[in-house]
């Protein structure tokens, strides 16, 4: 990744900062990423990944749609549309950005005012992302641009490239090249104006309730973005961030780098809002909606859960992952049918209280009904009891009993009688360790606990010399 980063940086050394056309391409298109200090390169995994890092498209399993509105100072408004369409291999992304500034007064060469006009820009995007290895993704995209400035108009195109990785469950990485291209204006017949090309490198930490990402962007000057997201409950998100560009902090003030926002997250629907400071110019407000539509096919899966001992159907919880994310339960006949499955591999997690859980994988063909019978084994219990003595005096010794096996736990014995009883412990092989007071040496042993039996094990502890 380091070699690729240095190679990409070398492509931009010929351009000076601030000389690129269509700066619209450097502005965050959605409130989610904008609220995080525009640091979204590593964790983008919805339709807006087409902008942030097209490799993120490869992470998307369901159809994804994002609609956003941005309100700027000077009556400028942006409308953005992004969608992601999963294919058998990889995901296709399509996007549209429209920006307009109305009521601009036109002055002629004699500096006399004329009629007003609206300046507008349009950007059309297409990209593709694919998983190249487990938790590693690659993507590429192209965009066409058109800019109407009343007295002139320009058109051009650009290339995007990206890679993304999750080497650990809590760590996401991303590297992307954005907007490598140029725009042509008719009055400048032989030259092209460069678009605002940039390289972005992101690293993100993701926990159960907390996420943070740091992005470093380079477009002949280094810009940093830092974002934090906190989910006190899964339906609500609070976001805060700071970015050092593309706005000029020296001109607009250090507070112009602040970003903030929130999100409401439902099962297949999310609503987002963000505000970004621009100092004395004002604030940019963004609102957006993200929709996820589960991908469906012509396949179905009929599951039946059976008690392995009695061979009778039983109720159980079912959780699916892989080509379909699903949680449900069987009916009283032990059956569950999942429809609309596409071809691919599915992982089936089956569990019920007092039964051993099981995990199975299955290849879904996607064009027919398939069946699977799952046998759950009831958990058989034992009782472990005994007494802990002093090896010389046979007096009771208080101690803690620690057990490790099919289940793990610890328990203290009766300090006066020295007795202990561990009830309803699943049968199996256990390592038992006795932790007495420091004046005694600890002991450990391995026991085989047989089903439906009471096993007695006494311990005789030796005092330290």
TrEMBL record:
First and last residue of the signal peptide: 1-21
NCBIfam families: PorV_fam (NF033709)
Name the UniProt record assigns to this protein: PorV/PorQ family protein
Sorted UniProt keywords: Signal
Superkingdom in the source lineage: Bacteria
């Amino acid at each position: 990744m380091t070699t690729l980063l240095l190679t990409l940086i070398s492509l931009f050394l010929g351009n000076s900062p601030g000389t690129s056309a269509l700066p619209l391409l450097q502005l965050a298109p959605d409130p989610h990423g904008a609220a995080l200090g525009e640091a979204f390169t590593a964790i983008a995994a919805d339709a807006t990944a087409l902008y942030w890092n097209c490799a993120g498209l490869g992470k998307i399993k369901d159809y994804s749609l994002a609609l956003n509105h941005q309100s700027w100072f000077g009556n400028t408004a942006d409308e953005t549309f992004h969608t992601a369409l999963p294919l058998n291999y990889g995901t296709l992304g399509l996007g549209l950005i429209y920006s307009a500034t109305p009521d601009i007064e036109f002055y002629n060469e004699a500096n006399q005012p004329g009629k007003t006009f609206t300046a507008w820009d349009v950007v059309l995007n297409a990209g593709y992302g694919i998983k190249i290895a487990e938790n590693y993704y690659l993507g590429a995209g192209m965009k066409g641009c058109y800019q109407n400035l009343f007295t002139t108009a320009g058109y051009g195109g650009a290339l995007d490239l990206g890679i993304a990785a999750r080497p650990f469950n809590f760590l996401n990485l991303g590297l992307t090249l954005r907007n490598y291209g140029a725009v042509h204006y008719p009055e400048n017949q032989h030259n092209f104006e460069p678009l605002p090309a940039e390289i972005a490198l992101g690293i993100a930490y993701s926990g159960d309730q907390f996420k943070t990402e740091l992005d470093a962007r380079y477009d002949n000057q280094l810009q940093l973005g830092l974002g934090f997201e906190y989910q006190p409950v899964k339906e609500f998100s609070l976001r805060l961030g700071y970015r050092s560009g593309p706005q000029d902090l020296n001109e607009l003030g250090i507070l112009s780098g602040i970003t903030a926002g929130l999100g409401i997250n439902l099962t297949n629907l999310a609503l987002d809002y963000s505000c970004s400071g621009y100092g004395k110019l004002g604030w940019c407000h963004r609102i957006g909606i993200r929709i996820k539509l589960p991908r469906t096919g012509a396949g179905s899966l009929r599951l039946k859960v059976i008690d392995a001992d009695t061979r009778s159907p039983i109720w159980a919880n079912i959780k699916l992952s892989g080509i379909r994310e699903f949680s449900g339960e069987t009916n009283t006949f032990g059956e569950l049918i999942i429809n609309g499955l596409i071809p691919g591999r599915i992982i089936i997690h089956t569990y019920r209280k007092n039964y051993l859980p099981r995990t199975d994988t299955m290849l879904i063909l996607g064009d027919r009904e398939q069946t699977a019978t799952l046998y759950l084994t009831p958990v058989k219990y034992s009782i472990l009891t005994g007494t802990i003595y002093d090896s010389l005096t046979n007096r009771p010794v208080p101690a803690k009993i620690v057990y490790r096996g099919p289940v793990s736990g610890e328990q203290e014995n009766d300090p006066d009688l020295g007795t202990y009883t561990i009830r309803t412990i699943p049968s199996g092989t256990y390592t038992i360790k006795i932790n007495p007071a420091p004046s005694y040496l600890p002991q450990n042993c391995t026991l085989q606990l047989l089903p439906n039996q009471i096993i007695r094990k006494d311990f005789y502890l030796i005092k330290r010399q």
